[in-house]
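Thread: Newbie trying to understand structure tokens

Hi all, I'm a second-year student working on a class project, and my supervisor (Dr. K.) asked me to get a predicted structure for one chain before our next meeting. I've only ever worked with sequences, so writing a 3D structure as a token string is new to me. If someone could post the tokens and maybe explain what I'm looking at, I'd be very grateful. Here's the chain:
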Amino acid sequence: MWPLRGKAASTLKRDPAPSRMAYRMERLWLRPGFRRFVRVGVPLGCFITLGVWYFGDERRQQAIVDQVAEMRSSIETRPEFMVKGMAIDGASTTLAGHVREVMPVDLPISSFDLDLEAMRKQVESLDAVKKVEVRVKAGGLLQVNIEERVPAIIWRGPDGLELLDAGGHRVAALGSRLERSDLPLIAGEGANAAVPEALALFKTAEPIKGRLTGMVRMAEMRWDVVLDRGQRIMLPQNGAGPALDRVIALNEAQELLSRDVARVDIRNAKRPTLRLTEGAMDELRALKGFEIKGNTE
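---
Reply by user tm_fold:
Sure, no problem. This is what the structure looks like when written as tokens:
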């Protein structure tokens, strides 16, 4: 049988079934993941490839960095962002001077270049500063609000005289006792760790304040109350306040501390002991010798 040619061949119908490749593509297109990949993944991949190619050039990278730095500098150095002055409130003149010395900043400066937290910690490291707040106010003002420690007592320690607050924290060094004669004096190793107890004892000793010289911490455990004329009241480790109250009551009743007493040892509440001065001891010995001699006659 001879194949058809010409017009007769063109009149034959084409097979409507898709080719194998077209069938596979249609099946693949029906998958949602493939459609998302074509619509999103392919453009995104092309964009990333283009970006890598463009920004892979070191000259372009440096140009972009320089441009960003220039834009940032132009914004940060605008007048409304510049800090031109500093105000310190709540501090004495001396402490304010110390604060200005330790502040790690040279004015004028952009507010973007200020590390307020680091500045706060730097100022708070000063002994005389209890609490500090640092912030930038409108108008280019660096505001420093300080709560200063208040000296409450003088401690004669290993490094000399030091001012302490009511909690025992160091405030400043002191050159002479006469500079703060209004404050009570404590001495001895570890006395700075027991300042609240010492202040309470000073308050208890108000009736004999005129004779009170100070207090000495003994073995970092207890206190000796030091009076003029070399007298001492030796307090116990526990219950020092009530023990001192008893001595003061006894003094008011019998003028104990006006007598020739060198030590009032009340460390043992059940057995208080008095130690006489050397002069009183000599007189006592003389009286005892006289009594013995009289009896022998």
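A couple of things are worth pointing out once you decode it. The chain has a mean pLDDT of 83. The first strand starts at residue 82 and ends at 83. Feel free to ask follow-ups in this thread.
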